[in-house]
Design brief:
Layout (H helix, E strand, L loop, with lengths): L2 H13 L3 E6 L1 H5 L18 H4 L2 H6 L1 H15 L6 H12 L2 E6 L5 H5 L4 E3 L2 E8 L5 E3 L18 E5 L8 H13 L2 E5 L11 H7 L3 E6 L11 E4 L2 H4 L6
Parallel strand pairs: 1-2, 1-7, 2-3, 7-8, 8-9
Antiparallel strand pairs: 4-5, 4-6
Length: about 240
């Protein structure tokens, strides 16, 4: 089936839906120029992202980890939401029930105006105290290194889910609610290899949802979704509103 046919089929499903869930990944932010910070283009100094985004790395050398996050924040601060982000804000207005689940930590969905937002992996513009656990917004660029909690004086860390850490239980619960309640699930710009998000398509389909994947290339989920549409998020997602 052609991409045009798949797109029309998806638009027809959306036209009759009341409850819609969306899962986004790095592909939607790439259209805003946000680097992936992983893989071949993710090297910083002599470190890979996988070597820095761990509790062990932070315990060993919190200054180096914060320097890396400060560098990332400086890059992201120059980026803006793209048409795909804005289209999802409009979609949120159109449906009775809407959930936006993102694996991205760049804050671009919130900057665009999304409110029904579940940030699975955290937010690079938030910090969390390692002692009292308080979470607060910090948009300093460049930021003070090392940052400390204004309440208890404890060392602050990025409010990010690192490798080896579990997702927040309340975000898992909200995501499961969305997957079981939605009539349509859109999966946009995600590789389909990072769990638990990689299994969301199967959960939603088992609950009766129509599942559509929108990505530049095929993914491990392409064989299990109802329709797969290839293209850049900034080009394809706005078409759903026409």
């Amino acid at each position: 089936m052609s991409s045009t046919s798949n797109l029309n089929q998806l638009k027809a499903r959306l036209a009759s839906a009341r409850a819609v869930a969306v899962l986004t990944g790095a592909g939607i932010s790439a259209d805003s120029g946000v680097p992936t910070f992983r893989g071949a283009d993710g090297l910083w100094r002599t470190f890979r992202a996988e070597d820095l985004a761990t509790p062990e790395a932070f315990a060993r050398n919190p200054r180096v980890v914060w320097e890396w996050y400060d560098w990332r924040r400086g890059l992201i601060a120059t980026k803006s939401p793209n048409p795909a982000h804005h289209a999802l804000v409009e979609m949120e207005r159109r449906f009775d029930q809407f959930w936006l689940i993102t694996q991205n930590v760049d804050g671009l969905h919130a900057a665009a105006g999304s409110r029904q937002l579940i940030e699975l992996h955290g937010n690079i513009w938030k910090v969390r105290c390692t002692q009292c656990g308080q979470v607060s917004v910090n948009r300093e660029v460049p930021m003070t290194l090392l940052p400390y909690c204004s309440g208890c004086g404890g060392l602050l860390r990025p409010h990010i889910v690192w490798f080896g850490e579990s997702l927040a239980p309340h975000n898992i619960a909200r995501s499961e609610e969305a997957l079981h309640a939605c009539q349509v699930l859109l999966i946009i710009g995600t590789s389909g290899v990072v769990y638990p998000a990689a299994g969301f398509s199967s959960v939603a389909r088992a609950a009766g949802a129509f599942v559509a994947e929108m990505n530049l290339d095929s993914t491990p989920n392409s064989s299990v979704v109802d329709v797969s549409i290839q293209g850049r998020a900034k080009d394809v997602v706005p078409e759903l509103l026409t």
